[in-house]
Structures are given as structure tokens and as C-alpha cells.
TrEMBL record:
It comes from Antarcticimicrobium sediminis. This is Uncharacterized protein. The chain crosses the membrane at residues 33-53. Keywords: Membrane, Signal, Transmembrane, Transmembrane helix. Residues 1-17 form the signal peptide.
Length: 62
């Protein structure tokens, strides 16, 4: 499951980062925005993973 989450987060970040996305100010703003969007995609993927794990553990207790 962790491998799937890692793969999905890596696949999602370039898709989120293009097609007219905002950039941060400065000469490195475009690259910095890619890093920020990748970090956000990874964080969302881990939150989804944690919710799925919590839901499975709750079902197992019942």
C-alpha cells in the first residue's frame, strides 16, 4: 500500500503542476512551485493512506 501511495503522489505532482499553474516570485519561482506542489501531493496521499488504515483498523475491531 505504501508503494502505491508513493507512486500516486509522484504521478500526481507533475499533473498538478502544469497547464498554467501559479509560480512564486523570482527566477526560481517555477521550480519552487513544483517542489511545493509535489510536497502537497505527497501530504494529501499520506492523509488518504492514514484514513484508509484507520478505517481498516476500526473494521477489524468490530
Amino acid at each position: 500500500m505504501k508503494k502505491i501511495i508513493a507512486l500516486l503522489s509522484l504521478m500526481a505532482s507533475p499533473a498538478l503542476a502544469h497547464s498554467g499553474h501559479a509560480t512564486l516570485p523570482g527566477p526560481a519561482g517555477h521550480a519552487e512551485m513544483h517542489i511545493a506542489m509535489a510536497a502537497a501531493a505527497i501530504a494529501v496521499a499520506w492523509l488518504v493512506f492514514a484514513a484508509v488504515v484507520r478505517r481498516k483498523s476500526t473494521r477489524n475491531k468490530e
